[in-house]
Specification:
With about 400 residues, the protein is an all-alpha fold. It has a domain of about 55 residues: Zinc/RING finger domain, C3HC4 (zinc finger) (Herpes Virus-1). It contains 23 helices and 3 strands. Helix 13 runs antiparallel to helix 14, helix 16 packs antiparallel against helix 17 and helix 17 runs parallel beside helix 20.
Length: about 400
């Protein structure tokens, strides 16, 4: 009789094993009318990826299992009349580690997101906490196409005359960040129509924590290549670069990580260059802010011709040579020399600066001898070009 303890009502899922096959005839009639089935068998089908009802051939609108309390009470009474002990269903945990009461609580919190501001604030704060602490609650958002729109409903345009409440916005955006950490949610979250526009809006408004968490959410979502393209096309790079330019310590790392991930694709490199990434990054490097992360982005952008042209115009050569001299980080030296090598290949007017640096400090030679394997290769390539230039001058 323990299989009765997780009975759920699902109007379409007639192909799952009916709980009443192990019950009395009068219960069979009730269950058939309400189409109530045993939770373990429903879950098994859903876990296997079955989302189509064989009777109607329609895709299930959601996969949230709603408890049928009436049938459970009838089963409980049936067991009681026959002296069979039935465990408390509230204490039963499904395969994802969620109790029935927790699932009901989750649904009630989503419903509160469409209520008044006090209820919304309370629900948003609790959803933020639950999705931070419990991976199983993050997974619940992937079970229904309506869960994320319900979560975001308070941030929809024109919801309040006085604008979006800052604390409510922060809690909702942070919940999105928590959801995006769950690998199975990344595609579903990013492709929900309201998500990317609201994250972009959050990058530009709200508390600095909200803006930082919006950047972090874009970073985690951009782990998927399809999401990189979607986020780039949505125009997220421009506000990310603007936030980077502001230089708030709390947001810098998340913003830099998001920009780096997005710029892995060629199309997003072009967008970042167009939106002023090179100028902003060089300015921060000169100010010695998050040099490690920003040099990595600059090295990635150096594969784009327009970026290389801008680097030359904005004085990247002396800036990068100074970093090589001053840093002890092998990776930073490697990124600097890689960018300098690209600049040298594309702009002969910069050779004079590099030659003067070499004559004064021997920066390139030192790196060619003691750098990483990639640094040695790039530095040697620059030295070969400098030597060829000198030989050609002497010959002339």
């Amino acid at each position: 009789m323990s299989a009765f303890q997780g009975v759920d009502e699902r109007p379409c899922d007639c192909f799952y094993r009916r709980a009443t096959k192990r019950s009395s005839e009068d219960l069979i009639c009730v269950v058939r009318k309400r189409k109530t089935y045993d939770r373990p068998f429903i879950q098994k089908g859903l876990k296997a990826g079955n989302r189509i009802c064989p009777r109607t051939q329609q895709v299930l609108s959601h996969t949230i299992l709603t408890p049928n309390h009436l049938v459970r009470e009838m089963i409980s009474q049936w067991c009681k009349n026959r002296g069979i002990e039935l465990s408390d269903p509230v204490l039963l945990v499904n395969e994802d580690g969620i109790t029935e009461s927790e699932r009901d609580h989750f649904l009630s919190l989503l419903q509160k997101m469409s209520s008044g501001l006090p209820e919304q604030k309370e629900a948003a704060k609790e959803l933020r906490s639950l999705t931070k602490r419990m991976p199983s609650f993050r997974a619940l958002f992937g079970e229904s196409i309506h869960a994320i729109p319900q979560l975001l409903s308070p941030l929809s345009e024109g919801k309040f005359e006085d604008g979006i409440h800052p604390e409510l916005q922060e809690d909702v955006i942070t919940t999105l960040l928590n959801l995006s950490i769950h690998d199975n949610n990344k595609k579903h979250v990013a492709e929900s129509p309201m998500v990317i526009p609201l994250l972009i809006e959050a990058l530009q408004s709200g508390t600095i924590q909200t803006r930082s968490n919006a950047a972090a959410a874009l970073f985690t979502l951009s782990a998927l290549d399809s999401n990189k393209a979607l986020i780039g096309k949505s125009g997220a790079l421009k506000p990310l670069i603007a936030l980077l330019d502001e230089g708030h310590p709390l947001a810098m790392k998340d913003v830099a990580s998001a920009i780096f991930n997005l710029c892995i694709t060629h199309e997003n490199k072009a967008r970042a260059v167009r939106d002023g990434a090179v100028r902003t990054i060089l300015k921060k490097i000169r100010n010695r802010m998050h040099v490690d992360e920003l040099l990595a982005i600059l090295a990635m952008l150096s594969s784009h011709p327009k970026a290389v042209e801008e680097m030359g115009e904005l004085g990247a050569v002396p800036c990068l040579l100074r970093v090589i001299r001053e840093t002890n980080c092998g990776r930073n030296k490697e990124n600097c020399i890689a960018v300098l090598h690209t600049i040298c290949l594309n702009d002969r007017t910069k050779w004079k600066e590099i030659r003067e640096e070499e004559n004064t400090y021997g920066t390139i030679s030192e790196l060619a001898q003691n750098g990483t394997s990639r640094s040695k290769r790039k530095a040697s390539g620059i030295l070969d070009r400098l030597n060829r230039t000198v030989n050609l001058t002497h010959t002339a």
